[in-house]
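Subject — a protein and its fold
Encoding — discrete vocabulary of local shapes:
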Amino acid sequence: MSTPAESLEARFEALRRPVGFVLAPAAAFAVWLAPLPGLDTPAHKMAALMTLAVVLWVSEAIPMAATSLLVPALCIVFGVGPAGAVLAPFASSITFLFIGTFMLGLGMQKHGLDRRIALHLLCLPGVARSPVTIFMALGALTAGLSMWMSNSGTTAVMLPIALGVLRSCPELGENLRLRENLVLLVAFAASMGGLATPVGTPPNLIALAALREHAGIELSFVQWMQLALPLTIALVLFLFWLLRPGDGARLVDPAALRAEFGRQLAALGPRTRGETYIAVALGTAIFLWVWPGLMELAGRGQGWGAGWIRAHFPEDIIGLLIGLVLLVLPTDFRKWEMTLEWHEAVKIDWGTVLLFAGGLSLGGQLFQTGLARELGGAVGAALGTPSLWTLVAVAIGLSIALSEAASNTASANIMVPMMIAVALAQGLNPIPVALATTLACSFGFLLPVSTGPNAQAYATKHVRILTMMRKGIWLDVLGAVTVWLIVRFLAPLYGWT
């Protein structure tokens, strides 16, 4: 029998799409007809079309990727901007970085490298000693993998391992609280790990692209990690505390659990050529992304090859090149099989790619029509000339609230350009505002619909929705405070004020 919370969510899901299907054009038409002083015709039209996009994205009345194609097409039809300018972001270099990293993640999953890494670490001495060490290992593994893979992909790899632990340890699996906490730990850690690197989750790349396109600011891979990695570590540590097993939890037979991990690892067989190629490709990508920034931090500037890497391997193209290399590394010469076949590569999440590119397109039109400037001025006036840190706090709160109802990518497409516009209109540095907005868009731990990992955790039927809501609200609130504190105290150290 469903709980009141589950019934409420079911009613919300049943109504969200049909209501959005009707509300989206109605709201857009209302904005189109409304007198909006200060806006010229293209900006006024853009306001109506952006309203259409926001309602469709939040309600998912039609597929979000379809919205990301439809609304830019309407921008051309209604004369908001020329076709070349409106569609240019679909060929943005960051869009191709997206495609390449998706191919790399697909290769890891195809050859099982992600699962082998996880089982190798779980077999390390001391990991299977107690529920606490198992929880910490699974949480840290999930967050670490999610730095380089999609959040949903990481959860798909780690949840079966976590459920295997529950099956192998009746003392854990039969305890409802421990069972729920372990499943939620994997889901929440996947979302947190994605914050740490620019390629960890789509909103991060949206922020980098928006800062580049709308504010003329380039942030490097390492600059992002300087702020986001400490945040991820702080959040994962809080997550361990929130979902800790408790002092009374004990393993009856740790040796049997270690043997089970060893059996699963042995079942994978010897390392394949494909796994080796994927590991080398991932290591090469990480090196090329990180090395120039590390040399800059070390005071070496362009030395030790950093300048050559910057000149020949821009960060956006590295992911694409590494992904393409997988298509030409043969794992079986006789059968002419490659590490990643094209029919497999085309299975990447094109919907997210289009959602990302469509968001860039609409963000560009917000600025080119002048609507972003007007929105920034209006929000600033409503807040009464806010300070930088007040604006950061407002951006975090609005982004987390929106991310509970919409996907993190859709939330970032809506919030990041708007908050950059507000910061620029108020003469404030847009970097802290954009980063805080983006990081907050990856929150939304309250409901199964909030994130892909949440939905996967709930689908296991090992987590009650009230438990997810109770734990999720703690993460949302404490996460908002943590994001604000990290940005408030680290951004000035990097000159982002």
Observations:
- Residues 213 and 364 are 7 Å apart (CA to CA).
